[in-house]
Design brief:
alpha/beta, Oxidoreductase, Rossmann fold, two-stranded parallel ribbon, NAD(P)-bd_dom_sf, 16% strand, single chain
Length: 213
Amino acid sequence: MTESPRQVLLAGATGLTGRLLLSLLLDDPGVAHVLAPTRHALPAHPKLENQVGMVSHLITQLHGPIDTVFCCLGTTIRQAGSREAFRMVDYDWPLALGRHGLAMGAGHYLAISALGADPSSKIFYNRTKGELELGLQKQNWPRLTIVRPSLLLGARREFRLGEVLASPFSRVLPGRLRGIEAATVARALWRLASTPGNGVRIVESDELRELGR
């Protein structure tokens, strides 16, 4: 495996996938520093710099240099409370993170999108994710990796009724439709960050499952 990025910015470090990815990064001897802004304080670690406050405000106050940006931000319309609030978390914040990450010197952005992301979709969730992907591509990153997991499986800190009900069925669906463990996605992101490449790469859920084994 090639050398991992040494200076990392991680947004969404308290979420289901983000906290698992954070653990991988902190345990990685090739990573020297992890910058992770969160609303609630994280456990202290010698390699961790954790600003606490509203993530939307903290994004533009971060200082580099950094090599790589991971975006694990995400919510649901029900959890956010409205379509507008959902779009802010799943579209506005990731784009702002991208703009500031570029200004901090990063060359690689890895973002979690979703299965079915499509800017022309009639489904608001899928359309928002597709518009995010287009927006990130327009930022002209030297390297952009977008992952599209299916239903994320794992123990969340907050209760999401829809995911609880869908989880048993998603485990038996074929191919990329089958639910995927958040730990698998986190491992795939970690490996993708340290795999050589450039340009735009979109990774569907079935490929994520292989990468995250």
